[in-house]
Amino acid sequence: xxxxxxxxxxxxxxxxxxxxxxxxxxxxxxxxxxxxxxxxxxxxxxxxxxxxxxxxxxxxxxxxxxxxxxxxxxxxxxxxxxxxxxxxxxxxxxxxxxxxxxxxxxxxxxxxxxxxxxxxxxxxxxxxxxxxxxxxxxxxxxxxxxxxxxxxxxxxxxxxxxxxxxxxxxxxxxxxxxxxxxxxxxxxxxxxxxxxxxxxxxxxxxxxxxxxxxxxxxxxxxxxxxxxxxxxxxxxxxxxxxxxxxxxxxxxxxxxxxxxxxxxxxxxxxxxxxxxxxxxxxxxxxxxxxxxxxxxxxxxxxxxxxxxxxxxxxxxxxxxxxxxxxxxxxxxxxxxxxxxxxxxxxxxxxxxxxxxxxxxxxxxxxxxxxxxxxxxxxxxxxxxxxxxxxxxxxxxxxxxxxxxxxxxxxxxxxxxxxxxxxxxxxxxxxxxxxxxxxxxxxxxxxxxxxxxxxxxxxxxxxxxxxxxxxxxxxxxxxxxxxxxxxxxxxxxxxxxxxxxxxxxxxxxxxxxxxxxxxxxxxxxxxxxxxxxx
Length: 533
Hints:
It is an enzyme of class 2 (transferase). The protein is an alpha/beta fold.
């Protein structure tokens, strides 16, 4: 049975250091535990955004559930105030284990079950309860160490807590994530949390612990640290197994860049797949249908200077460079690791026709929005080969303000083409893109092509994708500063595998049949993209 800690009357607790030193050590523990707690929150938000998609929604879920749970934890901690030291030690051990293992379990649920939302909510609730229980117990402990008025104690505790949160919030993106990754970073944070909580109780308050309580805390902390250390040793094997469960057995390249996770599987013409942050971006089985429909209708007319936004895989550039009268192609890709992979990987460079070896092509690493905002150059054709607008990071690149920048960068007779998502399964998104292009000052002509072999939802959560109708087509919006003109092909267009005038006319009629009148444009301050049922 855990020994009761009776409050000492008339002064501070019996501690092995001076009261002022003890107070400093308690505040130092508050600082470390607050930093660890915020790392757990950020790690859940970051991993959930990658696994489920839509970072705004995931951040809202994690933070709201966690704050609510902190209130519950504070109420539950009232029952432990009589044995605050041992209660705090056990809570910190539990928090270290749950928070440290949260990333592993969340990723495992995605890899082997396919559904990660309930696990995300469960961890947010549990971690929030444990974090919420800390402050009432620490308030009791600091008053036992150094008697002071309640207002002063609260001010000291919250100052240490807020500064610790600042350090944890900065350490996660700038230190833990780039150096250790999400899984190892969470495990390391859990170990730091366990050491800080255990050391405070077992050293500063050891005289207030009975023999059983002391042995229990030592055992629990040793078990927690051993589990976290074991998981750290096995984390690479776990990642490989989870990656095989998600992507199959033919993973050739898997790397975490400064921007995203990049995975390349297969090597043959009919088996190469490129995933970015878990989302299938390129499949060699049907990419030619997509890229032919994206590029060639926009090339009807002047096309000497072409700007490709996104498209770091080089496949859109491959189609553009088939026109001998093209003089320059600029590819603006946010992640330079993607362009490097497209240039150096034998299978991917073979698929893109070794586009990066063409002297007419220039690759620029940077944000497409900032590139357009800064440029004063003019282009005959702008090709927007960007990720799905439902992904939060891409929303600004499908806003009316963005298309206003594109309009400014077009020659008077220039054209823009935008990948706008699958109109058959996500019509609201498709017509929101079209309305946003028009709001940017451009005339539009929407069209679609079918024949899609591989399907993927806006987010990579496989359970969500299974519930939704698999997309069967691609949707595009062709736009121009003046009248767009009839949809068709340039007289000098090369021979294509699947696309022709008849397919384009059919795609134009098919898009008009599902038009949604009254769609409102998306703007930077009022984004209108969402995941459709």
